[in-house]
Amino acid sequence: MPDPELCGRQTGVPVSETLSDRATRRARIVFDTFRSIHDPRLAAWLLFRSHLLPEWSITAGSLSESTPEAALTPLGVFGVWRLLATNNRELARCARIFVSPRAAFDAVVAEQARVDEMTVTAVRGPQSTTHGWVIRRGDRPVLTAARWYESASEAAAAGRAAGAALATATIAQGVSIGTASGRRARVGMNAP
Predict the structure, then answer these.
(1) What CATH number should be reported for the domain whose range is 26-177?
(2) Would the N or C end of the chain have less CB density within 10 A of its end CB?
(3) In b/e form, how buried is each residue of 57-89, taking b as 16+ CB within 10 angstroms?
(4) Cα separation of 179 and 177, whole Å?
(5) Rounded (10°) CA dihedral 101, 106, 112, 113
(6) pLDDT per residue as tens, the chain (192 positions)
């Protein structure tokens, strides 16, 4: 019979933890910035969002034109929040790009308290076999899919699941920033 203590070390799950304990883990909301308006991650974020929200289609260059210089901090430019599953898989992304990580934090705290006012809409992607979803509060987009789905019903179900996860998600207190080497570093939200 295997040593129970050894089994716990191999899986990373304490032996005393039951399956029901694991089921109560919650999704997490994390915050990111982009290194600059030329960051390829920002361009990819905006391109994906433009397929889901064509009315919000903009370029990174136009973002910098509308952002006050004071908002461009050493933490990077802009701020976004993402909803992650317990296995760190990205479930959803915020619909807006905020002027700072702190603005993104304040927005998600407010939105989390109003999840019951949100509705999910399935959206057709750039090809007939790609579908996504958008969660709105009233007519304002709050949250979008983070990937494509094969059918509208699958996308809508994923959107409903993301909305449920948002309601109980743990909100991170740090922000992930890009470094010159391309790596990411996590710092406190109020770091200079």
Answers:
(1) 2.30.29.80
(2) N
(3) eeebeebbeebeeebbbebbbbbbbbbbbeeee
(4) 7
(5) 180
(6) 454 444 444 445 555 555 444 556 799 999 988 877 777 888 888 899 999 999 887 765 565 555 444 444 444 568 899 999 999 999 999 999 888 888 999 999 999 999 999 999 999 999 999 999 999 999 999 999 999 999 999 999 999 999 999 999 999 987 766 655 566 666 666 543
Q: Supply the pTM of this predicted model.
A: 0.75
Place of tokens 């399956």: 19
**Distance between first and last Cα of the chain:** 53
Q: Which residue has the tokens 């317990």?
A: 86
The domain segmentation of the chain, as residue ranges, is 26-177
Residue 45: its H or E element: helix 40-52
Tell me which residue has tokens 């919000």: 56
